TrEMBL record:
GO BP annotations, alphabetical order: lipid biosynthetic process
A single GO cellular-component term on record: membrane
Name under which the protein is recorded: Fatty acid hydroxylase domain-containing protein
Alphabetized GO MF terms: iron ion binding; oxidoreductase activity
Organism the protein comes from: Agrocybe pediades
C-alpha cells in the first residue's frame, strides 16, 4: 500500500515524526491498517479476531483434507476413527458459537487493557526476532503450566460434568476439535494464553502486540496439531523429545486421564500424570517385540486390542468423574 501525503496527514496523530519510508513492508501495512480503521481499539480488536479465525480454520483445513485421504491412515493414531463430514460440521458450529459468544465480546477489551499495562500496540517499528523469541518461549512455558493445573481441575466433579465433558465428546480428536468446548472452558483455558503476555508486560513494560500475535499463531498451530490424531515420522516430538504433540495428547482423549499439559511433557512426567500413558507405550513396544515375526495385519489387530482396553478403562474413569459431578453426590461407578 503506497503512502501518499493524505495518508501521512491522517496518520499524524498516531505516527507523528515517523519516517514511513524507513519501515519494512509489514510495518507499513500495520500503519495503514490503524490509519484506515481510524480507532486503535477497533483496529486491534478486529485484527485480533480475524487473525484467530483465519489461523484456526486455515490450519484445520489441511487436517480435514488428510482425514479424507486413506493414504494417511498409516500414521493415524486411532485409524478406525475417522471423523465424518457431519461430525466436522457439528464441531465447527460449536467452535464458532464459542468464538462469537466468548472471544468476540471480550476481544474489544484487549487493546485498552494492553495499553493500560504498557504494551505497545499500534506503534512501529516492531521488535527484533532476538527480542521476541525468549518472550514467546516464556509464554509457552507459562501457558503450559497454567493448562496443566486448570485442565486437571476441569476433570473433577462439577467442572467435568457441566463444562469439560463437551471437549471429550471425541475419543479420537481431529484438528477442528482443538477448541470444541463449552464457552466457559474457552474462557478458563484461554486465560492461560493471554495472561502470560499481560503479566510479562506489567512487570517489564517491554512487549509489543506483534509478539503476542506471533505467540497466539504458534499456540493455535500447537493446539490444532495436538488434536490432529496423526503422528508422522517428522512430527516435532520425534525431533524434540519433550514436545507434547498429537501422540501425547491423543492418549488423553482415548484414556480420559493422564497427559494434561499442552506443549511440553515435563509437568506430566514430574508429577506422575503420565504413568498410564508410559505403561501403555511400554506394553505396545513389548508385545510388538514378542510378535516380531507377526504379519502386518496381526500387529494392527494387537494395537487395536490394546487401544480398546485403554479406551474401556477411560470410559469407566469418565463415568466416575461424571458421577462425582452430581452436587452433593459421592457416588462411584464400579
Amino acid at each position: 500500500m503506497a503512502y501518499n501525503s493524505t495518508v501521512a496527514d491522517s496518520a499524524a496523530s498516531l505516527y507523528a515524526s515517523s519516517d514511513f519510508q524507513s519501515f519494512s513492508w509489514l510495518e507499513q501495512q500495520w500503519v495503514a491498517w490503524y490509519v484506515w480503521i481510524g480507532n486503535p481499539v477497533i483496529a486491534t480488536g478486529l485484527m485480533s479476531f480475524l487473525i484467530h479465525e483465519i489461523v484456526y480454520f486455515g490450519r484445520s483445513i489441511p487436517w480435514i483434507i488428510i482425514d479424507s485421504m486413506p493414504y494417511f491412515r498409516k500414521w493415524k493414531l486411532q485409524p478406525n476413527k475417522i471423523p465424518t463430514p457431519e461430525e466436522q460440521w457439528q464441531c465447527t458450529k460449536q467452535v464458532l458459537f464459542s468464538h462469537f459468544t466468548i472471544e468476540l465480546p471480550l476481544i474489544w477489551l484487549f487493546h485498552p487493557t494492553a495499553e493500560a499495562l504498557g504494551m505497545q500496540t499500534y506503534q512501529v517499528p516492531f521488535p527484533s526476532l532476538k527480542t521476541m523469541a525468549p518472550q514467546v518461549f516464556l509464554f509457552f512455558f507459562f501457558e503450559d503450566f497454567f493448562h496443566f493445573v486448570a485442565h486437571q481441575a476441569l476433570h473433577t466433579g462439577v467442572l467435568y460434568k457441566h463444562i469439560h465433558k463437551i471437549h471429550h465428546k471425541y475419543s479420537a480428536p481431529f484438528g477442528l476439535a482443538a477448541e470444541y468446548a463449552h464457552p466457559a472452558e474457552v474462557f478458563i483455558l484461554g486465560a492461560g494464553t493471554i495472561l502470560g503476555p499481560l503479566i510479562y508486560c506489567y512487570f517489564t513494560q517491554n512487549l509489543h502486540i506483534i509478539t503476542v500475535y506471533v505467540w497466539i499463531v504458534l499456540r493455535l498451530f500447537q493446539a490444532i496439531d495436538a488434536h490432529s490424531g496423526y503422528d508422522f515420522p517428522w512430527s516435532l516430538h520425534n525431533i524434540v523429545p519433550f514436545w507434547s504433540g498429537a501422540e501425547h495428547h491423543d492418549f488423553h482423549h482415548m484414556a480420559f486421564t493422564n497427559n494434561f499439559s499442552t506443549s511440553f511433557r515435563w509437568w506430566d512426567r514430574i508429577f506422575g500424570t503420565d504413568d498410564k500413558y508410559r505403561a501403555y507405550r511400554a506394553r505396545v513396544k513389548a508385545q510388538k517385540a514378542a510378535m516380531k515375526n507377526a504379519s502386518k495385519e496381526q500387529l494392527v489387530q494387537l494395537e487395536q486390542k490394546l487401544m480398546a482396553e485403554v479406551e474401556a478403562e477411560g470410559i469407566r474413569a469418565e463415568a466416575e468423574a461424571e458421577a462425582r459431578g452430581h452436587f452433593g453426590s459421592k457416588a462411584k461407578v464400579q
